[in-house]
């Protein structure tokens, strides 16, 4: 293992990149552990960093570390590999702190634990994937071992044409909503061809510009989204929440809307309970009416000296109850008051 590390990392000059990659992953994992402990209010654990009433996000420390690591890497001579590695480690730690709050920079709002905060985890995963490919020796556009040639040579022209073609295919894949295919395809150009040929995702710019909602391509894209894409997204969200915690808070701008939705849901529950109670009272009243009608019919038949079966009595009671519930009784006319006659006055 040590010999392989020396051959693939040290001898190829990728030791600073390895330091950046390791520091990036370790810092991201430790940061997520710390913020999850802060969110859980673990006793004996420190809280958020504050300067007075201002909450200092860890993106501030990330920017400072990136600045220090970048300047140190530029100022370090090429012969000092150890110092260059230390600068790369500092830069990787700062990059992890910055990308961990990428959603805050994107939305200019504290959406760390909301659904929008998943953009930070996506950015971190993309950075890890791209850095891992570079660390393995895979270069963009498929020319890992290209030898520099004069500008007018055939090889230089072919390299330039293939680079332009890969960039065009990458832009098409990104416009079709295939982020991972477009980014990883820069290192594996076959993925760019696949992403550019296949149908776009519903809701992507390419779909809005080129697909009619009633077209076969749009319907096929929707079916593929439901059948393949959504299970992959659910799996990705499960992995993200396992590593970075659940993003289940409501954004501040949606809190009034959430309160209104909760109030509407409460009113719907109360109305549903009232309807159920009214229906239950109606069923009980109908059952009492049926029992009273059945008893009355039994007494009438017994008074006439006849025997009526219980089934016929119940059927007659149901008919009487149905008639009473469906037919409205005629309105009783209100009697008009008669005019009072005046008594004749006696004349003297």
Automatic annotation (TrEMBL):
Residues 311-348 are annotated as: Disordered. The keyword Repressor does not apply. Residues 328-337 have a biased composition (Pro residues). The keyword Transcription regulation does not apply. The chain crosses the membrane at residues 15-35, 55-74, 81-99, 119-138, 150-173, 179-200. It comes from the Bacteria. Residues 311-322, 338-348 have a biased composition (Basic residues). Keywords: Membrane, Transmembrane, Transmembrane helix. This is Integral membrane protein. It comes from Actinomadura napierensis.
């Amino acid at each position: 293992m040590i010999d392989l590390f020396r051959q693939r990392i040290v001898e190829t000059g990728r030791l600073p990149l390895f330091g950046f990659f390791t520091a990036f992953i370790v810092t991201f994992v430790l940061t997520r552990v710390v913020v999850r402990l802060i969110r859980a209010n673990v006793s004996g654990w420190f809280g958020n960093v504050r300067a007075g009433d201002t909450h200092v996000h860890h993106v501030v420390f990330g920017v400072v570390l990136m600045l220090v690591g970048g300047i140190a890497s530029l100022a370090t001579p090429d012969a000092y590999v150890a110092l260059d590695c230390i600068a790369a480690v500092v830069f990787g730690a700062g990059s992890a702190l910055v990308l961990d709050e990428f959603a805050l920079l994107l939305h200019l709002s504290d959406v760390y634990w909301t659904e929008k905060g998943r953009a930070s985890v996506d950015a971190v995963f993309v950075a890890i994937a791209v850095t891992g490919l570079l660390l393995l020796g895979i270069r963009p556009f498929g020319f890992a071992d290209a030898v520099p040639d004069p500008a007018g040579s055939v090889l230089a022209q072919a390299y330039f044409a293939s680079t332009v073609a890969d960039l065009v295919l990458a832009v098409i894949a990104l416009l079709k909503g295939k982020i991972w295919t477009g980014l990883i395809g820069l290192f594996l150009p076959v993925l760019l061809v696949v992403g550019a040929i296949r149908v776009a995702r519903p809701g992507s710019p390419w779909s809005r510009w080129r697909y009619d909602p009633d077209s076969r391509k749009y319907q096929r894209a929707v079916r593929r989204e439901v059948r393949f894409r959504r299970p992959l997204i659910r799996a990705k969200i499960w992995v993200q929440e396992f590593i970075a915690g659940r993003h289940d808070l409501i954004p501040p701008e949606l809190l009034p809307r959430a309160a209104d939705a909760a109030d509407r849901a409460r009113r719907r529950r109360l109305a549903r309970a009232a309807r159920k109670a009214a229906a239950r009272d109606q069923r009980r009243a109908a059952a009492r009416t049926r029992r009273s009608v059945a008893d009355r019919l039994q007494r009438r038949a017994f008074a006439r000296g006849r025997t009526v079966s219980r089934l016929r009595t119940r059927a007659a009671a149901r008919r009487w109850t149905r008639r009473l519930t469906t037919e409205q009784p005629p309105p009783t006319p209100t009697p008009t008051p008669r005019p009072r006659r005046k008594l004749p006055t006696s004349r003297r």
